[in-house]
Amino acid sequence: MYHQLELARSGEALFKVRGKYLGWVCVFSIIIAYFNGAMGPFSSDGANLAWFCAAFAVASAGALFRIVTSGHAALGTSGSNKIGAVAAELNTTGTYSLVRNPLYTGRIINFTGIAMLSGSWVYAALTLLICILVYERISVYEEEFLRIEFGEAHSRWAENVPFLLPRLHGWEKPRYPFWIRRCIKREEKKIMWLFNVVVGCDFAQRGFDPAQLPDNMIWYYLWAAVFLAYAVSRALRKFAGVYDNIS
């Protein structure tokens, strides 16, 4: 019991600064990519290309898991709130029927893929380990809040649904339809960071030398398209208020 309370206490502190983690993981990936000078940890270009593809797939899978979760989330949840855990109701459907903390599961997968883009398996392994330790504590903090708030309903749900490692059965249709505006509000910055680090790592591995840019600029064009969409979304947020009153 005391161990659980200690985890929750440290998790509360980590919860309040969780928005800063993505930026640091991405920045370190780009720095390491510069010194690594290759897409992957292998001597073969083909193997390193396969590593890059796997890294992008892992990062995208984590992002997609979060997108599905955020789009079907109930109203009145923590979202980007930095003060403390919030939950107007206990969500047990959709991705929450597979794992109790799907947003953090998605974040662990996403961060691991982003770290892999550096080309260093050591950094990727360390990122995976640190993410598990950090998000385990944040999840314990949030679950302590849910246990107090929802009592027996939380206990019944927790008995059957895993903590951070999703199960492969028991899917329940989401209670709420997919809400695209809330999904964009919550996840747009994360998607932008993903493409920033893809292009940033590639450019870093080329020594930040514009003369070394690849003949096939597809990833740079994709980054430009995502950046344009992100800029439009931010403008709509600021000047049109399209995301006002969305948690």
**Structural class determined from secondary elements:** mainly alpha
Count all strands and give the number. Answer: 0
Mean pLDDT: 92
Shape category: globular
Total number of helical segments? 8
Rg value: 19 Å
Distance between the termini: 32 Å
Q: H/E element string?
A: HHHHHHHH
What is the beta-strand fraction?
Answer: under 5%
Helicity range: 55-70%
Quick one: biggest sheet?
none
Uncertain spans, ≥5 residues at pLDDT below 50? none
Number of domains: 1
Your description of this structure?
With 247 residues, the chain is an all-alpha fold. It has one domain (2-240). It contains eight helices and no strands. It has helices at 2-16, 21-36, 45-71, 102-116, 121-150, 152-160, 180-205, 218-240. The relative contact order is 0.16.
Please give a handful of descriptors for the protein shown.
about 65% helix; about 0% strand; about 250 residues; 8 helices
Secondary structure layout plus pairing:
Blueprint: H1 2-16, H2 21-36, H3 45-71, H4 102-116, H5 121-150, H6 152-160, H7 180-205, H8 218-240
What is shown here, in short?
With 247 residues, this protein is mainly alpha-helical.
